[in-house]
UniProtKB/TrEMBL annotation:
Coiled coil: none annotated. GO terms for molecular function: mycothiol synthase activity. Its EC number is 2.3.1.189. Belongs to the acetyltransferase family. MshD subfamily. Keywords: Acyltransferase, Repeat, Transferase. Catalyzes the transfer of acetyl from acetyl-CoA to desacetylmycothiol (Cys-GlcN-Ins) to form mycothiol. This is Mycothiol acetyltransferase. PROSITE patterns: GNAT. It comes from the Bacteria. It comes from Nocardioides terrae. Acetyl-CoA 2 binds at residues 205-207, 212-218, 242-247. 1D-myo-inositol 2-(L-cysteinylamino)-2-deoxy-alpha-D-glucopyranoside binds at residues 22, 153, 193, 201, 237.
């Protein structure tokens, strides 16, 4: 799959956005045998679970290659499928529509320069905040599953998925900030990600349903931004329909531009 990843990197450099999400890249690297693929020297179509990805080399676009690759892939499967346009790309929307996919979700990218000041927030007296420590995995998975019970991707994070991500070179235990109650229960976490010296990410913020309404989401997000304060800017991904989260992030200085929208398409 090295050629596939190299081609995806070429497309990312040209488009300014990665055509493959993190989960797909990890699957290609660690479980390539589980991926169905149609590969051409100038492009590819992949099926990982029920998710389709189609990428064409920038110099080979507008000649129908993406449609031919997708058609060949669809011949190999049946049942409901989804796919993402990473960025609001007209060509991706047209390809999806031509093959019976319709837009069903929007994921916003929100961005914040680290030069903006942060509000002064206090950690509640009965809450302890610290970085990840070995042995926290079960609590982390429990809170994640509860916080994202209705989220089709994040809520399904498994112990194996967690190990894969923690084995990535970007993982920093101190960048996985956890809130704990006095009786030893994890209340929430903010997992940060440092892509480069210039760019950081609010990777995941999860609050246990039992601890919601206490302002911990805002406190943990702000503490993560302090941890990432040495980068130039920070971005995050949020469901466009999650008005509470959008309001929280907007209050911390994050903004969204319409072009910074990822669209999920689905075919029944």
């Amino acid at each position: 799959m090295d050629d596939v990843l190299a081609l995806a990197d070429d497309a990312a450099a040209a488009d300014g956005v990665d055509p493959l999400d993190e989960a797909t890249r990890l699957t290609l690297r660690h479980r390539p045998d589980s991926v169905r693929s149609v590969v051409d020297p100038e492009g590819f179509a992949l099926l990982v679970g029920d998710q389709v990805s189609v990428v064409v080399r920038p110099s080979a676009r507008s000649h129908g290659l993406g449609s031919r690759l997708l058609s060949r892939l669809l011949e190999q499967t049946s049942g409901p499928l989804v796919g993402w346009s990473h960025g609001s790309l007209p060509g991706a929307a047209a390809l999806a529509a031509a093959h019976g996919f319709r837009p069903v979700r929007e994921l916003w990218v929100m961005r914040r320069p680290s030069s903006l000041p942060l509000p002064v927030l206090s950690v509640p007296d009965d809450v302890t905040v610290r970085g990840f420590q070995p042995g926290d995995e079960r609590s982390l998975l429990r809170v994640n599953a509860a916080a994202f019970a209705h989220h089709p991707e994040q809520g399904s994070l498994s112990a194996a998925d967690l190990r894969e991500r923690m084995a990535e070179p970007w993982f920093e235990p101190e960048g996985l900030i956890e809130a704990w109650s006095a009786d030893g229960q994890m209340l929430g976490f903010h997992w940060t990600k440092r892509h480069s010296p210039a760019l950081g990410e609010v990777y995941v913020v999860g609050i246990s349903p039992a601890a919601q309404g206490r302002g911990l989401g805002k406190v943990l997000t702000a503490l993560g931004l302090v941890h990432l304060s040495d980068v130039e800017s920070v971005h995050l991904y949020v469901e466009a329909t999650n008005t509470a989260a959008v309001r929280l992030y907007s209050g911390l200085g994050f903004t969204h531009e319409p072009a910074d929208t990822h669209v999920q398409f689905a075919r029944p």
